[in-house]
Amino acid sequence: MKKFLKILFILIGIVFLIFVVLIDIGLFVDFEYDDHIENGRYTYIPEEENKDNEYVAFTMSDYDKNDSELTYYDSIEKAILHSALKAENEELSVPDDFLNHVDETFHIWNGEQYDTIFYRAGTNDDSVQGFVFARLKKQIQNGNTRYAFITSTQVTAKPDSRYSSDFHKFLHSILTLSDFQQDLNPNYPDTRFVFGYAHEKEIYTLEIEGQKPDGVIEIDEYGRVTYMWYYNDLKSDKRGDCLSYSIDVPE
Asked: Are 118 and 103 in contact (CB under 8 A)?
């Protein structure tokens, strides 16, 4: 009997210890989150300054392509139509050239040697639509500007698409990824082009390193509003995951 009670007390002690640890973890998480909210505004500041947090401008092989390896067309739309985007549609129930069609142009960033376009492939009447960033090299031939597709990134959406509700972490992920997306920068390496998507109107209050976006594009996506925000040249020497930012908390 004594042995049984001893084992029982040990088990109760273990359960109690686990319970306390879980409470401590919960309190810590809540405290860490609430500590960043003041007057309805969320602020993210990296807790530790890392000596290796300096931004590194990545060199992409696409920047070094010789013109002999590129095929130029007389418009951005034609260059995209004949691009390698067709290979991106293998898992979608859409035609192979689905993403190659510029059905709606949202914005074009003009650089000296490159242009970057943000466009929609498809419409709200389609079961799938794509949102594409594409970067093209341009040159003057016989007095006319011609374009060659270089690279792109794209996301697709469906009427029943679901999005993360934790927009704070989503912003942090976007900024971390931005270092690797300079291959879409029309003025690389002279500027730092940063962009991302959001589904909350509070994105208009975003500040990264104290700087507001240069623009926010509103997109009607199956009756929902998607916001594409961008910085033409974010002024910071910090790595993407070390950037501080603040934004109003959604109501």
From this structure: no
